[in-house]
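Summary of Year 1 activities. Much of the first year was spent building the evaluation harness for sequence design. The harness presents a backbone, in tokenized form, and records the residue chosen at every position. We chose the following record to illustrate the format because it has been used consistently in internal testing since the harness was completed.
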């Protein structure tokens, strides 16, 4: 197996792990945030608008982590910074 193949295989495996961890973590965080918000609204219905606004800001921040992991995995697959170096070394 050549070095180029090893880098390709490592990039694909790491991209898959990034997507797996990057989707599980935010999913658990969003579920917990939503459960806590619903519990808070049930206890204090007068503060529903404040709790809802805070919930949406928190969900947006949690979702940004998932998007960040997606971008990292896309970079690893399609624009790997080590790829040009490996190809130039293989051409020598």
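For this record, the design step produced the sequence shown next.
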């Amino acid at each position: 197996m050549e070095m180029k193949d090893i880098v390709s295989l490592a990039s694909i495996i790491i991209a898959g792990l990034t997507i797996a961890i990057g989707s599980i973590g935010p999913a658990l965080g969003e579920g917990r945030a939503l459960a806590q918000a619903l519990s808070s609204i049930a206890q204090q219905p007068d503060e529903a608008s404040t709790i809802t606004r805070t919930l949406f800001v928190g969900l947006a921040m949690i979702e940004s982590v998932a998007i960040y992991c997606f971008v990292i995995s896309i970079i690893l697959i399609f624009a790997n910074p080590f790829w040009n170096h490996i190809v130039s070394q293989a051409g020598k």
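The chain is about 90% helix and 0% strand. Quantitative recovery figures across the full test set are reported in Table 2.
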